[in-house]
Specification:
binds nicotinamide-adenine-dinucleotide; seven-stranded parallel sheet; globular; alpha/beta; binds magnesium ion; 379 residues; single chain; 11 strands
Length: 379
């Protein structure tokens, strides 16, 4: 039995998390989301959390009226989200708000000594150098929910004293795998939103199309597993069956496989180190037939190199890169800039904003703001 707090409950990961909680019979003690109060009402009626926080202040009154008969306390704004994150009846927080908006609530949850099942990769991308030591200081576990990182985490289990040679992150390649630079220039928003193997929120789907998602995951893995970015390889694997792997000193590679379904990673973060029966489909190798692997094309998709560079620079650079990307993806989704302009905007911002250290959450949020304002001038 666990008491779970779900941040980002109305999103793709949030909804799948509630489905895992339903299946395992876990209590959900608090939920938090952006603005979808219709869905929040349904979630409140089913799970009866103590707290429900909605980020959009203008929606709070509506939500309060909707659930007045339930006994759930409705909060709003960023402070309300943070209050949900530290709800005293909660021993693990599933962090699945999209973007840097997830950073502060996740940090607050760590300070209140709750384990973190982390889907929100932007938290580690922008502030891994603060969050990982913070987790150590407060004695909490950071359990990866990103499928690749969950796979690496599973591949490291039982090998505590064995040195790893590299981490191998697999990437589906997104909808534009094999495209040339010229072909990429004219792709539309609806083409970019069609991911070949995963159904996810809009921001991460666009990140998968630009390969920025894999770049962010390189930084995320470097923090989680304390490895050099140069020891993290990326390989394109179209079928999304091998979710990632670790390579050991003897050149053995241990990976984790299964059908592409985020509920596996969500559930493992909850039940670790145990495994439980799941609703996820079984993988049938004979039906699958084959798995294919390709090298990524860094000249067509430069986002991964930018991420490696930002990580090596450190300081405010990863937060600047991430903020620029969030802003540029927003402009692309609103039809203000083209697809290839996203990575170009990230690169321009990274090279034009002065390098600084960013040793506090406030400094990271400041770097994020600076990057967003630089990009908004481009739109
Ligand atoms: P989504 O867009 O489907 O959902 C985002 C959730 O965050 C929603 O509940 C939304 O209401 C909430 N939200 C947005 N802004 C907020 C704010 N300011 N305050 C509070 N809540 C806010 O996104 P998603 O696909 O579920 O992804 C969530 C996170 O998980 C992202 O960081 C993503 O990179 C990561 N992730 C997702 C997947 C996936 O399969 N979807 C896989 C790996 C990692
Ligand atoms: Mg992933």
């Amino acid at each position: 039995m666990r008491d779970v707090i779900v941040l980002g409950s109305t999103g793709s990961i949030g909804r799948q998390t509630l489905s895992v909680c339903r299946n395992l019979g876990y209590r959900v003690t608090a939920i938090a989301a952006g603005s979808n109060v219709e869905l929040m009402e349904q979630q409140i009626r089913e799970f009866r959390p103590l707290i429900a926080a909605v980020a959009d202040e203008s929606k709070a009154a509506d939500l309060k009226t909707r659930v007045a008969d339930t006994g759930t306390k409705v909060l709003s704004g960023e402070n309300g989200i943070c209050e949900a994150a530290v709800c005293r009846y909660g021993d693990i927080v599933l962090s699945a708000i999209v973007g840097i908006a997830g950073l502060r609530p996740t940090a607050e949850a760590i300070k209140s000594k709750k384990d973190i099942a982390l889907a929100n990769k932007e938290t580690l991308v922008t502030a891994g150098h603060i969050i990982m030591p913070m987790a150590k200081e407060y004695g909490v576990k950071i359990l990866p929910v990103d499928s690749e990182h969950s796979a690496v985490f599973q591949s490291l289990t039982g090998n505590k004293n064995n040195k790893i040679k590299s981490i191998i992150l697999t990437a589906s390649g997104g909808p534009f795998f094999g495209y040339s630079k010229e072909q990429l220039r004219n792709v539309t928003v609806s083409q970019a939103l069609k991911h070949p193997s995963w159904s996810m929120g809009a921001k991460i789907t666009i990140d998968s199309a630009t390969m920025m998602n894999k770049g962010l995951e390189i930084i995320e893995a470097a923090h989680l597993f304390d490895v050099d970015v140069d020891d993290i390889q990326v390989v394109i694997h179209r079928e999304s069956i091998l979710h990632s792997a670790a390579e050991y000193e003897d050149n053995s590679i241990i990976g984790q496989m299964g059908v592409p379904d985020m509920r596996t990673a969500i559930q493992y973060a909850f039940t670790y180190p145990k495994r439980c029966a799941s609703e996820v489909k079984r993988l049938n190798f004979a039906e699958l037939g084959k798995m294919t692997f390709y090298a990524p094309n860094d000249s067509v998709f430069p986002a991964m190199s930018l991420c490696r560079e930002a990580f090596k620079r450190g300081g405010n650079a990863p937060a600047v890169l991430n903020g620029a990307n969030e802003a540029a993806v927003g402009l692309f989704l609103n039809g203000k800039i083209g697809f290839t302009d996203i990575t170009k905007a990230v690169k321009d911002t990274l090279y034009n904003i002065n390098f600084k250290s960013a040793d506090t959450i406030e400094a990271v949020l400041e770097a994020d703001k600076e990057a967003r304002s630089y990009v908004s001038d481009l739109g």
